């Protein structure tokens, strides 16, 4: 764990406001903790499209987001579109294969579950520095 | 051969000579004799009014096998088959020739040796004297070939009109020349309307261009293949079909006639799509489950327990997860009865014979979706484990009551479960343990299921209420 952390540019997520959208409490909690450990300010986590859209519309600009694709059977793409419209970078996390993701989102990085939180944080950091 | 050099002759003074020395044309009789004798492929013979043979050429001798000397004077009927002789065909032929000026002779004839050949010829009456002339030849090969062709055509027609596929004949450019009756039945586009490119009317408008373009490339490729939607007349439904065609003359696909079939693959395609969807779903669930297992392992380890305790707790939690999974796979439409979920968890600890004096379970039929069932199953596992270790099920005097009901009073219908342990005397009201189970009930359930929960460690035993919205708990993706 510690070794992997050193691979990350430790300051990339420092002070960033990151939205976490994940319907599983434990995965959301793991991810939120990991991002916080890297200095990020986590918005959420939230487990539904409704709550995610409310956070996006809320005060304070977001610097990035992590989106689970399937939220209790609902697909997260409305949230993805809202983020894209605000030019907020984001990554997907999902149990689905890339082929199950619509062509529109082909350029969005995809972290296949089960993914450890740090690998995901790294993936997000890469998006933020693009 | 070159024509005779008439120019030289015309330029001389011997004009009268050239006329007088020109060879005289043969007279009719001579001409007739020459033709008849040289026409060895044709049987040419004459007969009198009583059908007795009067002349017999070399062709007739070759064809029928009778030498001239043997047949002159005998009846012409003998060249007919016995069945035609019995049927009076020889007389009929003469009668027709006399009446109409000629009669077709298209039938089997019999040679001297009894073998038969297919004759194709003509019978005509002679003008000067009573009698007839017959000119005929052996067309057995052509006749057999034609018969074969007719049989082949018939076989094709039979096949094309009895298989479920819609068959058609077409030019290399896609212009149809013949649609099978099945095509007409299925599409309601009749024969006349289908001819040419009219058949395209039965193809889904969005697929027409692709269907036509494929014909443009067909001659080059030597075959035609498309999948497109064809309208079913009966109910107007556009059903997916697979259309294939091939040229009959494979060496010249551009000029050859083509034959094709259109096969209904609608259901097959549906199954394939569904299979792909199920596969993606299975993958999604497996990965999600692995993620859940991973997070359970993390949480179980985080409590700071010994390796032995970790192993025991982790195994128990996995077992709870697995028993929910097996309930899910047994249930219809991935729904679980709340009672089955509770019984499954309790029986894992108490054995199949749940003692009614110690454990009471009451509630109506409530069905939960997969997501709610999985989370609730894990919560019930934690409650049960706690009861077995420290609570109502750890002491003989302990009692457990699990009651549930549906509550439709709020904006959303909920399943409300009440877990109540009694009969205990616990030294401390609230244990300091803030483990996995507690976080699951107090935080994970509200987060994942929008459940309202309450967990109290009372002196007489644990009291817990979990209210889960029912519609939220039914996943919409399955």
Structural class of chain B: alpha+beta
Q: What is the number of beta strands of chain A? A: 7
Whole-number total of structural domains of chain B = 3
Portion of residues in beta strands of chain B equals 15-25%
Strand-pairing-aware structural class of chain A: alpha/beta
Poorly predicted spans of chain B: 1-19, 472-478
Distance between the termini of chain A: 25 Å
Shape of chain A: globular
Overall pLDDT of chain A, averaged?
Answer: 81
> What portion of residues of chain A belong to β-strands?
15-25%
What low-confidence regions of chain A span 5 or more consecutive residues with pLDDT below 50? 1-6
Q: Count up the domains of chain A.
A: 1
Features:
heterodimer, A: Rossmann fold, 5-stranded parallel beta sheet, 7 strands, disordered N terminus, B: 478 residues, alpha+beta, Beta-Lactamase, Heat Shock Protein 90, 3 domains, 5-stranded antiparallel beta sheet
In words, what does this structure look like?
- By secondary structure, chain A is α/β, with parallel strands linked by helices.
- Chain A has a single domain, classed as Rossmann fold.
- Helices cover 38% and strands 22% of the residues of chain A.
- Chain A is built from 5 helices and 7 strands.
- Chain B is α+β, with helices and mostly antiparallel strands and 478 residues long.
- Chain B has 3 domains: 25-138, 2-Layer Sandwich (Beta-Lactamase); 145-264, 2-Layer Sandwich (Beta-Lactamase); 271-473, Heat Shock Protein 90, CATH 3.30.565.
- Chain B has 17 helices and 17 strands.
- Chain B has helices at 6-10, 15-21, 28-38, 58-64, 68-71, 82-86, 89-100, 140-162, 181-187, 191-194, 205-221, 266-302, 307-330, 338-350, 370-389, 436-449, 470-473, and strands at residues 43-47, 53-56, 103-110, 116-125, 132-138, 166-170, 176-179, 224-231, 238-247, 258-264, 336-337, 359-362, 367-368, 399-407, 414-422, 452-458, 461-469.
- Chain B has a 5-stranded antiparallel sheet with strand order 2-1-5-4-3, with helices on both faces. Chain B has a 5-stranded antiparallel sheet with strand order 7-6-10-9-8.
- In chain B, a hairpin with a 5-residue loop joins strand 3 (103-110) and strand 4.
- The two termini of chain B are 90 Å apart.
- At the A-B interface, helix 2 of A face helix 12 and helix 16 of B.
